[in-house]
Structures are given as structure tokens and as C-alpha cells.
Amino acid sequence: MAKTVMVVDDSVSIRQVVSVALKGAGYNVVDACDGQDALNKLGGQRVHLIISDVNMPVMDGIEFLKAVKQKPEYKFTPVIMLTTESAEAKKAEGQAAGAKAWVVKPFRPDQMLAAVDKLIS
Predict the structure, then answer these.
(1) Is the pLDDT of residue 51 over 90?
(2) Between 20 and 30 A from 6 (CA), which of 14, 45, 92, 116?
(3) pLDDT in the model for residue 44
(4) Taking Cα atoms as reference points, which of 45, 59, 3, 12 lies closest to residue 31?
(5) Range of 80's domain?
(6) Do residues 75 and 97 touch, judged by C-beta distance below 8 A?
(7) Residue 83 contacts by C-beta under 8 Å, 6 or more apart in sequence?
(8) Distance between CA 65 and CA 39 in Å, rounded?
(9) What is the pLDDT of residue 90?
């Protein structure tokens, strides 16, 4: 059974690149355009991992991460932050909120897939 990864990013092109890489590696993908959209789409369904941008309208990635970690069914779901943010303070904020990995854009799809495989194998 294929594992499901949620991709949350306000950039359509980033969502497409990440989705193509994940689908090519055999994952199911659910995508969302911001944190609020992602929360609406989660709705209790089984998601094995979340990849989220930090800077998004409506609800940013850190707020989204905190909201996800409040939900018992997603408390232990690993989250990778995929972002242009490379500041240590932002990374620390992400880790404190529960992020398991921090991938800075531009990224190589194979690097991202290696992180995904490591976190949900």
C-alpha cells in the first residue's frame, strides 16, 4: 500500500515539482495551497508525512505545523519544512514547533526524496 504525503505550498510550480518526484517514487500525494487549506484537507485521513512551505498567505507553515501537532491523529506525523528561509532563528522556531527536517529551496528532488524515505520508512 502506497504511503500518503501532503504537500503544502502556495507556489503551484513547487507543488507540481514535489508531487511529480513523490508520485514517481510511488507515493500518493495530497496537495494544499496554504496551512488552512491543508488543515481542511487533512480531515482525519491517514497521512504519513507532510512537506510544508513556511511563507504562505492565510496560515503560514509554522502556524500550520503547530495546529497539526495539536491534533492527536497527527501528533507523530513527521513534517519537512521546504522553504527559502535559511535563518537559524526560523529553523529553531520550526524545530520547536515539531519540524523533523528543513530543506532550503532551491532543492534537488532526489535530496528531498531521501529525506522523505528516511522519515517514513
Answers:
(1) yes
(2) 92
(3) 80
(4) 12
(5) 4-120
(6) no
(7) 53, 54, 55, 61, 90, 102, 103, 104, 105
(8) 10
(9) 93
Q: Which of 62, 56, 58, 9 is nearest to 32 (CA)?
A: 9
- Please, are residues 10 and 54 in contact by the beta-carbon 8 Å criterion? no
Helix or strand holding residue 39 (H, E): helix 35-42
SS3 call for 8: strand
Specify whether the CB–CB gap between 50 and 79 falls below 8 A.
yes
User: What count of other Cβ atoms lies within 10 Å of the Cβ of residue 115?
Assistant: 19
pLDDT tens digit sequence for 66-111: 999 999 999 999 999 999 988 999 999 999 999 999 999 988 889 8
The whole-number pLDDT of residue 57 equals 95
pLDDT at 37 over 90: yes
How many Å is the Cα radius of gyration of the chain?
13
Give the CATH number for residue 105. 3.40.50.2300
Helix H or strand E encompassing 49: strand 49-52
